[in-house]
Amino acid sequence: MGCGEGRIQCLIQRLEAMPPRSLILLEEPEISLHPSAEYELGKYILDLVERKRHQVLLTTHSSMLLRSLPDASLVFLARNGEAITALPGIGARQAASLLTEGHDKALTVLVEDESAKSVLTELIRRHNPDFLATIHIAIARERRESGRIDESGKDAIRRTMKTLSEAGLKLAAVLDGGETVDAQRYIFCLPGREPPESELFKNPSARRMIEETYRLKIEDLEAEVAGADCHEIFKAIGRRTSCEKEFLIQEAARAYARDIPAAEVNRLIEMLKEASQRR
């Protein structure tokens, strides 16, 4: 018998001997256990609570133990300098991601292109940076028979979601603004009614940032890109500023995020949290 098994056997004997409705404090009971045993320990504790009506408070660093417990029972303690903040009701996958400082992502969120990725990143960063650390925002790409990678927007997202979901990956999608939301399949959309680059270019804060930072006249830019595809907007700004398109979009997205109502962004964040917490 291993050290971990011996400790747990002793712990279970003591727990079973305690009178009903006891208050039990456990500090990292999973130490030295195999991950599968950590999960089973959590299930045992739930069974014990139900049978004997105990109240159990435990601390853990085990993502497997976390995943065996109801999300409503979890409280994550986040340290920020000398202060400690309690985050109640956090999902097991989010808690596991925070414990690993974002290395173990709770959710993969698919978007249509780099512009959408920048916009979604900056919106979440502004309103809930802790949640941003628990998710991976990825562009849906498909590889054709020729081997060429083709980015094909919402159609690629739907096909990629189907393929990766079958592989067991926890997914959600955020389409461009104005697209149809399918909450049951965890498909949402960005604020606005137009593609991200168009939304950025018409946003007052983003326009002001472009004018003040790069000394450009918006009227001149509008004349240059009139009638062009939305993807040409920031290419044109890049030609005038000698900056990479992706960098300019990131800067514009940061300015744009300041103007979007918190309630609208938080509603999207809550839907993504629900997607990450589903069993």
UniProtKB/TrEMBL annotation:
Family annotation (Gene3D superfamilies): P-loop containing nucleotide triphosphate hydrolases (3.40.50.300)
Endonuclease GajA/Old nuclease/RecF-like AAA domain residues: 19-64
Listed name of the protein: Endonuclease GajA/Old nuclease/RecF-like AAA domain-containing protein
InterPro entries: AAA_GajA/Old/RecF-like, Bact_Antivir_Def_Nuclease, P-loop_NTPase
Pfam family membership, one: AAA_15
Species of the source: Aquisphaera giovannonii
UniProt superkingdom: Bacteria
